[in-house]
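Feature request, filed as a ticket because there's no other form

It would be nice if the structure record came with a short human-readable summary line next to the tokens. Right now we just get the raw output. Example of a typical job, pasted below so the devs can see what we mean:
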Amino acid sequence: LGDPRAITVIETMVRAGVQERDMYEETAITALGYIGDPSALPVLADATTNRNFYVPFHAMFAMSAIGDERAAAFMRPMLTNRNDRLEISAVCSLALLGQQDTLPQLAKILDSETEWERFAALLGLIALDSPEARQILQAHREKESSALRTAFDHAAAGEKTLAIVEMLKRIGHVKELNDF
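Raw output as currently delivered:
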């Protein structure tokens, strides 16, 4: 963006919000993650308390995109959230930050009947890229639909980019690697 005032404008959008489904707030939150400035962490942490599931979901992934270890402190309280979807989002976001202690929870999420939850866990395991994460991927590969087995295979082999491409192909965002 090149203009340091942009963060303030985007933070104001997040705080102001809009009624109903806050697409603007979600977009502003995502932008803060892409900017990558750790000073946005308190605003993103505040957004995790929003009643609309999508706002905290985007806020946690934005915090993980910033990549600052302090983000983990803001997300850890969500691990005991009564909303399973927010708890899963927190586990996967913490994995994206490299928090290896999320491995048992990620393995449990891979047993979910819900595909988006398995996608999020797969993404977290790809990000962790440890021998333990690859072992979990191998153990769950056979349980997965044939459509996602290729992604599991690439992830288990440490081929992060190819695993993510296979995931995106599965949900229809890309057809091939050169679509990026």
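Something like this underneath would help us a lot:
The longest helix spans residues 115-128.
The two ends are 22 Å apart (CA to CA).
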